[in-house]
Amino acid sequence: MSAKHRVVVVGCGGMSNVWIDYAMQRPDTEIVALVDIKLEFAEKMREKKGLACGTFTDLQLAIEKTAANVVFDVTIPASHFQVASTAMRLGCNVFGEKPLAETLEECNEIVRIAERTGRTHAVMQNRRYDPRIRTLRRMIASDRIGQVGFIGADFFIGAHFGGFRDAMESPLLLDMAIHTFDQARLISGANPVSVYCHEFNPKGSWYAGNASAICIFEMSDGSVFDYRGSWCAEGAPTSWEAQWRIVGDKGTAIWDGHGMPYAEVLAPGPQEGKFIRDYVRIDPEPDATEGIATGHGGCLDEMFLALEQGRLAETDCRDNRYSMAMVLGALESAKTGRKVDLGPLLKL
């Protein structure tokens, strides 16, 4: 009997190892084809993993020859729209690396294609699947700090990548900020309404483009999300998960991106007349996600589970386009010097 999930992997570069290894350990999943614009890359990956599948340079042919029903898109961002649209029109569900697409117009069209075809498209947002940030989300959702008014995230790392990032026009916003922006949506449960962004390249930067940015987002729940980030900040680096402060009307939650989050809230009892009121610390309850896969594995587990349950994945394209709007809106604001209303960009 053939596997329930017959997978074509498109893009056989380094990142595909994670996706292929994951699929190979699922008893209900079979990799039926590897696709790459360079056939030798697909053939080398097949040999490396000991697979018996076909290798192709054409996605449509691969799907038609193998009766695949799932496509893993691990290609470069410029190929994501073509891969997704081709796969869904041929009856496949798509699990893809971020970003959803290069433009919001393409992101919205992917959603429309998913609606027309009845297929799904879910995006790899692996940083959602960290037990610490999900604990932080639970603290916020449980009303521990009350109604959220402000979310702040600081991301400062001196990253010496070399290669293509050093030459990008907007390396921080285009390549990294999507993770932090998506985390802010996860934490708050709110979507972006508008953005003002100042992007710049500070003295001493080894990047050709703007490696630093400050963004102010107005969110749908009335809160403000403030992002400060740099990929050329030497010394005192933050976590790759950023440092977070979430302020509510009852208290404040803190996560340094390394340990577990905690909150300080108003202490019980009378507080009238005190200039600075008394607070008590609240540590998180035992993690309800203990034992659940994290990172890429956690996100892929959710994608497959959603498919089996006939529901949309947490990172389905319909949801993920809001995170993409934050990135693309920030870039537009930085170029124009004006606040950008995201509503028109998100209309389908």
Summarize the helices and strands and which ones pair or pack.
Elements: E1 5-10, H1 16-24, E2 29-35, H2 39-49, E3 54-56, H3 59-66, E4 70-73, H4 80-89, E5 93-96, H5 104-117, E6 121-123, H6 131-141, E7 148-156, H7 164-167, H8 171-175, H9 177-188, E8 192-200, E9 212-219, E10 224-230, E11 243-248, E12 251-255, E13 262-266, E14 279-282, H10 295-309, H11 317-336, E15 340-341, H12 343-346
Parallel strand pairs: 1-2, 1-4, 2-3, 4-5, 5-6, 7-10
Antiparallel strand pairs: 7-11, 8-9, 8-15, 9-10, 11-12, 12-13, 13-14
Helix pairs in contact: 4-5, 5-11, 6-9, 9-11
Distinctive features:
alpha/beta, nine-stranded mixed β-sheet, 12 helices, Rossmann fold, Dihydrodipicolinate Reductase, domain 2, 348 residues, globular, 15 strands
Verbal overview:
The structure is a single chain. The chain has 348 residues and is an alpha/beta fold. The protein folds into 2 domains: 5-123, Rossmann fold (3-Layer(aba) Sandwich); 128-291 and 325-341, Dihydrodipicolinate Reductase, domain 2. It is built from 12 helices and 15 strands. Strands 14-13-12-11-7-10-9-8-15 form a 9-stranded mixed β-sheet. Strand 11 (243-248) and strand 12 (251-255) form a beta hairpin. Helix 4 runs parallel beside helix 5 and helix 6 (131-141) packs parallel to helix 9 (177-188). It is globular, with a radius of gyration of 22 Å. The protein starts with a strand and ends with a helix.
